[in-house]
Amino acid sequence: GINSFIVTIATSSLYLGLNLGLTQAQPFYHLPKAISDFGQARIGFVPSMAAVTVPAAILMAVFLHRMVLGRQILATGGNWNAAQTAGVPVNRAVILAHVISGVLAAIAGLLWMAQLAVAQPMIGSTWLLPSFATPIIGGVALSGGGVSIIGTVLAAFVVALIQNSLVHLQIDPYYVQFLLGLLILGAVGLNRLSQRRKVQRGTA
């Protein structure tokens, strides 16, 4: 089939161009007050953003590891042919995975809009590399079938910490790309090493 990464990049470029064309790249500030209030609100000492994202991460972990549909997605990602032979509806699993990914991305965009109190057409245009880097650094298997929600959340904090630290230290922001590249290479190397060790243990 068509490579999902290529389709993702292509559709992202398509929708970004359409978005900029329709909005003339002009931000929209006249959001309902309830939206901006929610973006700045706190539940006790917990920001409203965390009050949404943390439960969402927990629900995703439960879905992937405890529910049939989630396990089918992981099985399909791990070995398409084996999953199909076992009776897993692989095409449905792939479609469901993309739908969930799209819905979560949309929710994240709405939360970011609420926090900034502005609908900015260019928001997210530079997030392609971090969006790939974060799960890889968090331990997601590039070969599929392996995912760590906790690892991905922690990796997101690491990436954000690096970006914020460089800003506070007044270091050229272009070095963020350099450091992300190093982190990705390191994570991929560790991932491959871990897989080789598992294979060696299995054949021992």
What does this structure look like?
This protein is mainly α. The protein has two domains: 30-121, no CATH class; 126-204, no CATH class. The chain contains nine helices and two strands, in the order ααββααααααα. The protein has helices at 4-23, 33-40, 48-66, 68-78, 80-85, 90-116, 128-137, 149-168, 174-203, and strands at residues 42-43, 46-47. The chain has a two-stranded antiparallel ribbon. α4 (68-78) packs across α6 (90-116), α7 (128-137) packs parallel to α9 and α8 packs antiparallel against α9. The longest helix has 30 residues, at 174-203. The protein is globular and about 60 Å long.
List the helices and strands and how they pair.
Blueprint (H helix, E strand, L loop, with lengths): L3 H20 L9 H8 L1 E2 L2 E2 H19 L1 H11 L1 H6 L4 H27 L11 H10 L11 H20 L5 H30 L1
Question: Which terms summarize this structure?
Answer:
two-stranded antiparallel ribbon, 2 domains, globular
Count every beta strand, where a strand is a DSSP E run of 2 or more residues. 2
In total, the number of domains comes to 2
What's the helix-strand series?
HHEEHHHHHHH
What strand line-up does the widest sheet have? Answer: 1-2
Percent of residues in helical segments?
A: over 70%
- The count of helical stretches stands at 9
| Alpha-beta classification | mainly alpha
Biggest sheet features: 2 strands, antiparallel
Ranges with pLDDT <50 over ≥5 residues? none
Outline type: globular
Rg, rounded, reads: 19 Å
